[in-house]
Every structure is written in structure tokens, then in C-alpha cells.
Design a protein that fits this description.
By secondary structure, this protein is mainly α. The chain has six helices and no strands.
Length: 141
Amino acid sequence: MLTSILTAIHLLAAISIVVLVLLQQGKGADMGAAFGGGGSSQSLFGSRGSANFLSRATSILATVFFITGLSLAYIYARQSGFESVTQSVESVPVERAGDLPAVPSDSASESSGVPSTDETSQAGDVPAIPDVPEGGGQPSQ
């Protein structure tokens, strides 16, 4: 119910802002009155009264528009059950170095297929370059 009322006020404020901005005269329109275009002096609000009224009404409606927009965003965020990313992430405990499992012995690494430190030290630090077939191994064009 509240969201329907706020949405209606928000829509009316948006339409009213558009209408009021289109009704306002530009800054260059005052020069026409200075050279004999005295039609604005016979308006409902006087020569400068309409500009002040329209600009004040526009600023009030802009404030209403922002307040209703922020209120609607707040209401819809609470209704959707929005939660922050930091709230949804589970905390993972950090393991200390003393809590880590021990390194398996050489006999365990041989049965698992992982080379022991002796085998890797014999092979050297740099892996061997594979043999290149004749022709450089590049496809023919």
C-alpha cells in the first residue's frame, strides 16, 4: 500500500518536473522584454514573479522526486531480502603452520607416483627440451 502511494507521488513529481522545465523561459528571453516585448509584464505573476515561482516549484518537486526515489529503493531492498556480499561469505579459518599435515615420507611418495626429492635433483632444475621432428614441426602451407 505504501509503495503504491510513493510510486504515484514519484510519477506525478516526474511528470510535473518535465512540464515545469518546459514552461520556464531561457536566460536569453529577458532581452526581448528590454526592447519592447512587454508581454511578460501582464502575466499572472508579474514580470519576474513567474520565473521565481516556476524555479521554486521545480526545486521543490525535484526534492520530492529524490526523496520518493530513495524511499522506494530502500523499501524494495528490504522486501527482497537483500544482503551484502560480505554477509553472505562464510568465514574460513586460517590454518597455522603447526596445524598443517606432515610431509609424507619417501616410501609414501614412491607408491603414490610422486617423484622423491632425490629423483628431481638428478633431473636438474630445467626440464629437457623435447625433440623437434624434421622440418621444424611447422605445418606446410
